[in-house]
Design brief:
By secondary structure, the chain is α/β, with parallel strands linked by helices. It is 33% helix and 22% strand. It folds into two domains: 1-57 and 67-112, Rossmann fold (3-Layer(aba) Sandwich), CATH 3.40.50; 117-225, Vaccinia Virus protein VP39 (Rossmann fold, 3-Layer(aba) Sandwich). Strand 5 (116-122), helix 6 and strand 6 form a beta-alpha-beta unit. The chain binds S-adenosylmethionine (SAM).
């Protein structure tokens, strides 16, 4: 493994704003802040926004500086990427930010029912060959339902038109509530947070001349699988 990565993994262990729990530890001990993020970690009652597959955490960090009256958590499995977000948050003294290193599949081990107000899915791997691995597949949406407030928003930004169209079709088929969608975020000048922040991958895609798709929706809470 490259030395830089090893150094980052080691430094990650000292970061107070990063939680890393193996599945074994989660099962045996549970996560102490589940249901307690507000009272015991952030020490306020501000809404909690979760970014999944956050990579280096540009959205989590960017939104947290725009909205000091909200709390933000970035979640990813890759420690070397999370290092960047944790370090920036610590260097900037951001007290409304934390990061979790885990698989998205386990989010219900970290959050209680209705603990999360909004979720961002930023440039997920499109998983063209394996539908069940797409982060907007119905099985993933069921996981999100376990932690989201009933009126919670889910935002998706992607460069991948296939994933975007798949998500639009799935929203319609499952009776979820589409609130807004655009196949070309930067041509369709809009308010809100979607055009405000550009992630690491987004910048790469923009340099390649790709258009950026964006949508936001709410889950159909009458639908359970
Ligand atoms: C293409 S990158 C996008 C990163 C970042 N959102 C951005 O836009 O720059 C996708 C990220 O999702 C993470 N990821 C993919 N599947 C995951 C899973 N099941 N659990 C946790 N993280 C996952 C990867 O580790 C990677 O950092």
């Amino acid at each position: 493994m490259p030395k830089k990565k090893l150094r980052r993994f080691k430094e990650n262990l000292s970061f107070p704003n990063l939680f890393q729990y193996s599945y074994k530890r989660l099962r045996e001990e549970g996560f102490p802040y589940k249901g307690q993020w507000h009272a015991d970690w952030f020490n306020n009652e501000h809404p909690l926004i979760l970014e999944i597959g956050c990579g280096k955490g540009e959205y989590t960090i960017g939104l947290s500086t725009h909205y000091p009256e909200k709390n933000f958590i970035g979640l990813d499995i890759k420690g070397a990427r999370l290092w960047r977000g944790c370090k920036t948050a610590l260097d900037q003294g951001l007290r409304n930010v934390a990061f979790i290193r885990c698989q998205i599949q386990f989010i219900n081990h970290f959050f209680e029912k209705e603990e999360v107000s909004e979720m961002w899915i930023t440039f997920p791997d499109p998983q063209i060959k394996k539908e069940s691995k797409r982060l907007t597949h119905p099985d993933f949406l069921e996981k999100y339902r376990l932690v989201l407030k009933p009126d919670g928003l889910i935002h998706l930004k992607t460069d991948n038109a296939d994933l975007f169209n798949y998500t639009l079709e799935m929203i319609q088929a499952e009776g979820h509530r589409l609130i807004f969608s655009t196949h070309d975020l930067y041509r369709n000048s809009m308010d809100g947070d979607a055009p405000k922040i550009r992630t690491y991958y987004e910048n790469i895609f923009l340099e390649q001349g790709k258009t950026i798709c964006y949508l936001k929706f709410q889950l159909n809470n009458e639908k359970t699988h």
